[in-house]
Write a structure and sequence with these properties.
The chain is α/β, with parallel strands linked by helices and about 425 residues long. The chain has two domains: about 5-175, 2-Layer Sandwich (VC0802-like), CATH 3.30.2130.30; about 180-415, Rossmann fold. Helix content is about 35%, strand content about 20%. Strands 1, 2, 3, 4, 5, 6, 7, 8 and 9 form a nine-stranded mixed β-sheet that branches. The chain has a seven-stranded mixed β-sheet with strand order 14-13-10-11-12-15-16, with helices on both faces.
Amino acid sequence: MSQPAIVIHYHELWLKGRNKRFFVSKLASAVRLGLEGIPLDKIERPNDRLVVRLKEGASLEDTLSRLEKISGIAYYAIARPVEADLQALCEAAWAEVEPLSFATFAVRAKRSDKSFAHRSSEIETVIGRFLLDRLREAGRNVRVKLNDPDVTCRIEITSGPALVYARKIPGSGGLPANTAGKMLCLLSGGFDSAVAAYQMMKRGAHLSFAHFYGTGARPGESSLHVARGLVRQLVPWQFTAKLYRIPFESIQREIVRYAPESCRVLLYRRMMLRIAEVLARRDHALAFVTGDSLGQVASQTLRNMVAVEAASNLPLFRPLVGTDKLEIIALARKIGTHDISVEPFHDCCPVFMPRSPALHATAAELDAAEAKLDLPQLVRQGVAGTALESYRYVAGRVESAEVPLNRPKEKQDAAIA
């Protein structure tokens, strides 16, 4: 048999009306980037689906593995390329459905190449009858069911070889990468923020990451290795990413020195947002993303979340706000961030943890708690200490590099003020 083809179906893009062409083009670009380095003959776009034709020597396993991380795909299938001939199509359809276990089936045909002599309805009738006879000869108690069958054998008549497939592989769903604008994710080392980042990437947002870290109780305990691991795991969904590394412990000590104990963690978070806002604006990001889940910890009560986000002028998105911890952990396992987040590291937020943290703070109360802090200077300190790494997903590998973080001082001061 010749090299298989991959048929890619999408569903949400159908809702885009006149903008559909833009989203389908972005999906095709994402598929092309995601499969870079795999020998491809071509990527076709017949009638509301994509067809990836592989060259000889292309790894099917590698191709399928990479498609798992491309957003915008409802499902995909490994298709048999066959001669556009009814008898050849019948035999290929039998080879597809014979190993499967089912009670009902249907045949669906699409004829992109109108030069093929038989209409779609005729193709469905002929192949459906052929399969039904073969299955009953084999002693199988099956019947044709046109609406919601257990198995659908699909026939695609294209300008190249015809394609036959019956087994669907679920895709990640969502929207194609880089179709919804830029956001900045406040990335901790835990489960939540990485999963929140994935949820927004899946909706087409392009994320940069800001990681605030401490030096660690002992050498080697800093959380930087975990943050880097999480970004490396996430970047294939959007192909490029930036990681801002911000040392935070000296700023925390200033907060501990001058602010009420019960408000410490909330003030840490407000300071993170102020520093991150400067970085977000230099990247033209439109909003923040965090991993907050309502009521999960003291700083994530409704009143506290509202009081914290008041420190920033950018919108703050919390895709996990109504999700419980077990659901978050299950999704972390699915996307491959779970085992990275369970590695030991020193989280900066619990440093100098208050004995009795505030549960229902208001923005006015936190403003008052910050009265003795030189907020602009602390923001400048945080931005000045920031380092930047860039990440790229190329030919199935993640590459990273340290890059200079240059910003004219007068523009930086204006953004902070």
